[in-house]
Amino acid sequence: MEYIVNPEPYQWKEEYTVKITVIDEQHKKFLSIINELKTIINNGQCKEKVSDVFFQLAYLIDHYFIKEEIYFNDLKYPNFDQHKAEHNNFIERVIQFQNDLENEKPNVCLEIYHFLENWFDEHILKYDKEAVDYLRARGVN
Fold it and tell me: What is the pTM of this model?
């Protein structure tokens, strides 16, 4: 069988840990969503199963993004507005993916996968790591 995306699931690595429980939980959940999407794509089940991914993303946004923003706001994180804007852009992109799916845009699951993978690499591994240093310095764990 030929796979569209590498079928090997992402594994949590110690280097991903930021040592703030709620944020580490969020990042682990995010990886599990990416892994589920990999399986959906490689099994050719985008249309039938991608709604599960949207539900999980909505939960992630509702529970984790907001907690993170509360921490940053309460502790006067200097880049709070930029961080919140990035979250808002993520939400807008997820909504656009839902519209693309409803309009039967080809390869939308693959686009979602690449977007989520890039978000993990760029936002979570780089941007969030810098931001959590600020939180940890203020006693959040």
Answer: 0.90
